[in-house]
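Chapter review: from sequence to fold.
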Amino acid sequence: MLGKTVGQDPVAAIGILVTIQPKYVNMADIIVPLATDRPQPKGERAAPEAEPIWDVIELLFFAYRDFISDPDEVLATFGFGRAHHRVLHFVTRSPGLKVAELLDILNITKQSLGRVLKQLVDQGYVLQKEGANDRRQRLLYVTPKGETLAMKLAGLQTARIARALAELGPNAHEAACRLLTAMINGDNRDAVLRFIARADSVRRQRS
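The token string follows.
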């Protein structure tokens, strides 16, 4: 899918395209009183806080931990990490992706992306080209070598997902997609779904 560095791993790996920029404020300027500062009406008890959904929270954590462990092992043999994986994934899915768009997808700083991108370019996994109409634009493409690695990593993750879906039976794929889509921030969902549909269409045309 915040201002994180590339090394961090949000479970919502896919908060794509529409970025919610963090707002920095001086806490002294926030004057809205806290609920605990307001006196409770006499004889009225405060409503108990809802219990966190511990099981789903923890299942998401452990599922994501194991989901990324398969490609992690392969990446380590190349001296790469998860940041390299993300760049390879999205550039493979969207050939000609602008650097600015990739920054929005990953929600990281130029400096963080620059280090990873330089390694991938220097080692022959990614190409940068100037935009046809705007030479200031940098468009990204994977090389055959980069696509081979990206597809190997995606294959490992696909195998794990396929095993899980097979255990759940009919309509599991659709249910999983509905759940994950619903977890994306509402103002991001349409952009995410458009990105996926466009990438799928490009992939089918190339096949």
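Two observations follow directly from the output. The helical segments are 54-78, 82-93, 99-106, 110-122, 144-168, 172-183, 186-206. The two ends are 26 Å apart (CA to CA).
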